[in-house]
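Hi L.,

You mentioned the student needs an example of a multi-chain input paired with its predicted structure. This one should do, with 419 residues in total across all chains.
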Amino acid sequence: MCNACGNPAVPGHWTDAGAATPGDRLRARFHRAGVLNAILRPYGLSAHDGGVVPGIQLSTLSGASVIVPDLAAVWAEAERLVGRPIDPLDARYLDAD
Amino acid sequence: MQTDDGRLRLTVLGGYLGSGKTTWLRHQLHAATFGTNVHVIVNEAAETPVDDALLGQVTLLAGGCCCCDGKPALIAALRRICDDRSRTGGARFDRIVLETSGLADPGAIVAAIQGDPVLVNHILVGETLVAVDALHALAQLGTEPLGRRQVGAADRLILTKTDACAPADLAALRATLTVLNPGAEVMAAVLGEAVDLPALPPGTKPAPLPPLPEEDARGAILPTQVQVDPAIDWSAFALWLSALLHARGDDLVRVKGVIRTPAGRLLLQTVRRVVQSPEILPDAPDQGQDNRIVFIGRGYRPADLERSLHRFLGRPLPVTPR
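Structure written out for the whole complex:
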């Protein structure tokens, strides 16, 4: 653990388990940020992962931003910013095409 | 066995009151199934300890079930064990086995350990074993929400007292357990000694599981299998699952399956909101089980999960509905 910033506090978040090499990890982070961005856009949020700083940066349309360590924290923070949880079983994802 | 990163492996042994946990564990310690250097923690809900007399060298947590009242005591005991191990520089023992009280929900214990900022760096929660009393389990599962939760939280179910049980009842129990937890491996033991289970007769009907008061309006807990499209990679799947667990973690009792990723075959398992560190399994040819994830939960229509997986990630639905 870095004694200045406390990162990483736990040995790897489970969502990072699918990549074994540093190259794969970086690729997975960029790819994840892209997909996450598309999911968050309808909620007025955007996600950015530059690949350098650990964590994911979430921003609102008004410019407020926050850096969170992992995906579990992304959803918790998104719930706080949006005012309700982003639920994959919400009717908007289940309606007919 | 230590993990690669030096964390201790913890095995949780649960099961209903009188299901034969201690008997089973005592035999396993004698036969060194868990290796010779095992630290055993026994939790008893009652103030008067009985079980520890049977087991030898153990840490005993009496007077409070460690999934609720006794949780601080459990966390403190585990921290003390990790602390001692760090001070002495290492491997006086390789594994911790936690025998829970018969009233404990193993899922809550796993959540407590993984939620502790110190323990998460020292302990890797491995398998959750649940002892199931072949004589009485059918009756318990019909009336006790706790019994169902315990079965739902298991990686491996150990049927005990199978020698005293009629073959037809045993078959019905096994079919019922498959309904409650299709992902769990089932084995049998008599007085701790493993016995082979005969093949399940075809057409065995599971016993009816009436809805229980605790299951309230959210409906019964049902298993669903979701086939993950190979086109959905791990990052995308993890996005969906992490969002689902955040929003619906209380309703998803358990998620389990093997998923193929660039790093290898990952064994994924969750208990409510807690995800165990995914383990990389040895590579093996796909036998139709990979990328098939079992969800055990309630509060949604089973068919919605697959639809949600595609739509949430902005992908077209599979052309042929399964």
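You could point out the following to them. The mean pLDDT of chain A is 85. The helical segments of chain A are 22-40, 71-82, 91-94.

Best wishes,
N.
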